[in-house]
Amino acid sequence: MKKALIIVDLQRDFCPGGALAVKDGDSIVPAVNSLAKSFDKVVATRDWHPKNHISFASNHPGKKVQEILKTGDIEQVLWPDHCVPGTPGAEFHPDLDQRTLDLIISKGTSPKLDSYSGFFENDHLTPTGLDGYLKNLGINDLAVCGLATDYCVFYTVMDAIKLGYKVDLVSDCVRGVDFPPGNVQERLEEMQKAGARIVASEDPA
């Protein structure tokens, strides 16, 4: 049975020293590299935002980081500028072994639309192409790791389950923002209730 590993947003800007750093985000890289060797396919997602992206607080005068902006039916959390193509922060962590990657999915490329999930933009209508890629290969089993547990990892897992995939969350290969406080634990419980299995990197199968 074919199985794919989805590595979510393991980029410099989400690691210590980056614009939107996740605490200890870089600590998972060695385990992720080891994990990737045991999968049929490995896909990495990446935030890939233009400078005028809607999620950047700097593009909304008078607004601050972590404020909520309502645009139609979508509530947009405002963040520092991050993962802009051509900047060091958009690059994958330098220790991530990119030789294991079969596909890179760029998300959040539209100025007016953010994307947390590896499968859809935040309108839940615009696909990234990941689902089609996996379905064409006959892959139904996924393991998900990366950054951040309570945002992009969470939405990737939830969309995968909705699309009919069997999903393992690799608990020692994720780190969270935990905003608001307690968010990581709540998201973990939501993922489990939805059907995700929480596993360790030693036994993701």
Automatic annotation (TrEMBL):
InterPro entries attached to this UniProt entry: Isochorismatase-like_dom, Isochorismatase-like_sf, Isochorismatase_Nicotinamidase
Gene Ontology process terms (BP): pyridine nucleotide biosynthetic process
A GO molecular function held by the record: nicotinamidase activity
Domain Isochorismatase-like: 4-203
Signal peptide limits: none
Protein keywords: Hydrolase, Metal-binding, Pyridine nucleotide biosynthesis
Matches recorded under Pfam families: Isochorismatase
SUPFAM superfamilies on file: Isochorismatase-like hydrolases
Pathway: Cofactor biosynthesis; nicotinate biosynthesis; nicotinate from nicotinamide: step 1/1
EC code: 3.5.1.19
Homology family: Belongs to the isochorismatase family.
Protein name: Nicotinamidase
Lineage: Bacteria, Pseudomonadati, Spirochaetota, Spirochaetia, Spirochaetales
